[in-house]
Design brief:
By secondary structure, the chain is of the alpha+beta class. The protein has 8 helices and 7 strands. It has a 5-stranded mixed β-sheet with strand order 2-1-5-3-4.
């Protein structure tokens, strides 16, 4: 299977970038997108040329490192699937595939397909944590939580922070990401502490680095964790709750 790859090459954030064209003549349908890039880099190294820089870690759809734009779509053609689980079988033999970094003003390019997503980290640093008393752990059933509540919290906690929602949004919004964090941290009694302060701090930081929600819903389509659009409603809900009840509660 032969594919022509148009890959964005950029030395660093201060340097101009451009697409370069490469051919991979021995791609297979079973390859993932990252394995295709591995094969391309094998060829480049064999030719004495600089390999393409891209991120990966677990390659199991958990870490969120691998996100790239494929033909203008975050992660690739298959909905709700991370780049590391997008397969070459999604493309036709002889097809031209364009690969570029996740595009957002909040994600400056580090090199080639690698971007700096520390703006998402700053949202978490602002309030995505909980203070608990240290000491002997209580019994597991001391504080009862319903099955439905626990499952809901886990569903929203599944967000891997890949940044695809930001890249998919015309306004570069991180509302889906922030809403997912606020929802799961507000759901359980152990993580409900500082709920108001958390909402104010995280939303303020989000609004500082990212744009407003576009209301188009592209973010939910590309999210590998399948975070629903209802997470976005949590941003306004939690902020309003903090305003009405006081940020300490």
């Amino acid at each position: 299977m032969k594919l022509t790859l148009e890959v964005w090459r950029q030395r660093d954030a201060a340097s101009p970038g451009a697409f370069e064209t490469y051919e991979v003549a021995d791609a297979t349908a079973e390859m993932t997108l990252l394995e295709l890039l591995d094969r391309l880099n094998d060829q480049l190294v064999e030719q004495g040329r600089e390999p393409v820089a891209f991120e990966s870690d677990c390659r199991e759809g958990i870490c969120g490192c691998c996100g790239v734009n494929v033909d203008g779509r975050p992660h690739g053609p298959q909905a709700n699937t991370p780049s590391c689980e997008q397969h070459v079988r999604s493309f036709a033999d002889g097809e031209v595939v364009r690969l570029e970094p996740l595009r957002s003003a909040a994600f400056p390019v580090v090199k080639d397909l690698v971007v700096d997503r520390s703006a998402l980290d700053r949202v978490i640093q602002a309030g995505g944590h909980v203070a608990v008393d240290a000491g002997t752990a209580p019994d597991a059933d001391t504080t009862r939580v319903s099955y439905e509540t626990a499952e809901m919290a886990l569903d929203f906690a599944a967000c891997i922070g890949c940044g695809a929602c930001v890249a998919a949004c015309p306004n570069g919004s991180a509302s889906l990401f922030t809403g997912a964090k606020l929802t799961h941290l507000a759901a359980l009694p152990q993580t409900r502490q500082q709920r108001g302060a958390r909402a104010v701090a995280m939303v303020d930081q989000m609004e500082h680095d990212f744009g407003p929600c576009s209301t188009f819903g592209e973010c939910a389509v590309v999210c590998p964790a399948g975070i629903p659009l209802s997470a976005i409603a949590a941003v306004g809900k939690e902020r309003m709750r903090a305003f009405l009840r006081g940020r300490a509660s």
